[in-house]
Write a structure and sequence with these properties.
With about 220 residues, the chain is an alpha+beta fold. It is about 40% helix and about 20% strand. The protein folds into 2 domains: about 45 residues, GTP Cyclohydrolase I, Chain A, domain 1 (Orthogonal Bundle); about 130 residues, GTP Cyclohydrolase I, domain 2 (2-Layer Sandwich), CATH 3.30.1130. Bound molecules: guanosine-5'-triphosphate and zinc ion. Belongs to the GTP cyclohydrolase I family.
Length: about 220
């Protein structure tokens, strides 16, 4: 069997849970192991990868890497897989009767591409029009961070952020634009360091071209990373 075919077969074995919704594809038993148990298990997997690559795991600089990577996966870069870490975004009454759109722009975004497990680095821009309630500004950054801390595709991340804010604010009138660099494109494969990916999701009033234009004018996509 050629290598390409073998790799395809290995890939297919892990694809039994893939759905087409905006939800991150998770198995029903995703949280049966505690975080500590997950760290112990991933530590062994990383040890195995490093061993297979021929690295000497008794070397001073390498010996702590399996534990370090396992902790980083579970507690940091994939920490947003756990619903317990979903930010509490309490809302307040829009007592100022502010009726225009509110834009939170240039939200720093660090995520991980689910195809190669390499970083996605960029900016998210969010807008909403209040339907009677408002949310603390930092909660928008926290929602971006929570969904970013998962293996992601940028399209799904953009939609998850909008869906969450629509629920929190009880309105369809929410939009998000993400402009991000994928290291899987920039540092390997095609190795195009300059390209970035722009995705958008426009809910409710933002489907109207004038409202959408106003939001896009505020954020002017000259993003620097
Ligand atoms: N739609 C989408 N694609 C992504 C995202 N991140 C990475 N990709 C792409 O997903 C694809 C992965 O599938 P393959 O074509 O099997 O990967 P590959 O053989 O490593 O491809 P190359 O990157 O072209 O070497 C690549 O083309 C990536 O550029 C994302 O957020 N959204
Ligand atoms: Zn990738």
């Amino acid at each position: 069997m050629d290598l390409e075919k073998q790799l395809k077969d290995i890939e297919a074995m892990g694809n039994d849970h893939i759905g087409s919704s905006t939800e991150t594809p998770m198995r029903t038993d995703a949280f049966e192991l505690s975080d500590i148990e997950k760290i112990a298990s991933i530590k062994k997997d990383i040890q195995n990868i490093m061993h297979t690559l021929g690295l000497d795991l008794t070397d001073d600089s390498l010996k702590g890497t399996p534990t370090r990577v396992a902790k980083m996966f579970v507690q940091e870069i994939f920490g947003g897989l756990h619903p317990d870490r979903r930010p509490k975004a309490s809302t307040f009454e829009n007592k100022y009767k502010y009726q225009e759109m509110l834009v939170e722009k240039n939200i720093t975004l660090y995520s991980t591409c689910e195809h190669h497990l390499l970083p996605i680095v960029g900016k998210a821009h969010i807008a909403y029009i209040s339907n009677g309630s408002v949310v603390g500004l930092s909660k928008m950054n926290r929602i971006v961070d929570y969904y970013a801390k998962r293996p992601q595709v940028q399209e799904r991340l953009t939609m998850q952020i909008v869906k969450e804010l629509q629920q929190v604010l009880n309105t369809e009138d929410v939009a998000c634009v993400i402009d991000a660099k994928h290291l899987c494109v920039n540092s390997r494969g095609i190795r195009d360091i300059d390209s970035s990916t722009v995705t958008s999701e426009f809910g409710g009033a933002f489907k109207n071209s004038e409202t959408r234009r106003e939001f896009l004018d505020y954020i002017k996509l000259d993003t620097e990373f």
